[in-house]
Design a protein that fits this description.
With 97 residues, the chain is of the alpha+beta class. The chain is built from three helices and two strands, in the order αββαα. Strand 1 and strand 2 form a beta hairpin. It is elongated and about 65 Å long.
């Protein structure tokens, strides 16, 4: 039975084992940083609703890369930024590239 719960919260002690939940257990692995972005979608009741997508840095880069490849860079960084913004905003809709 594990008895070393000095850096853990109550959940580890109560269960008699390390939960490995970040922020609760000293033995938990820190999760990769993410960003959450809101999106509007049609809920099961047919009405618009707001939800969230969560992305790691790599997932966000994978989302943006196709738009950047299609961007006409002759206009400079403003077009590059607009292409990235368009891809992020339309990531789930018909305008997604």
């Amino acid at each position: 039975m594990t008895t070393d719960f000095d850096g853990c919260r109550r959940a580890c002690r109560a269960q008699g084992r390390h939960t490995l939940a970040w922020g609760e257990c000293e033995h938990a692995t820190q999760p990769e940083p993410t960003v959450s972005m809101s999106k509007i979608y049609t809920a099961s009741d047919g009405h618009p609703s707001i939800g969230f997508d969560t992305y790691t840095a790599q997932q966000l880069a994978d989302l943006i890369e196709p738009a950047l490849r299609k961007a006409n860079l002759a206009g400079g960084y403003d077009r590059l930024a607009l292409a990235a913004a368009h891809q992020i905003i339309n990531r789930n809709g018909e305008g997604a590239r």
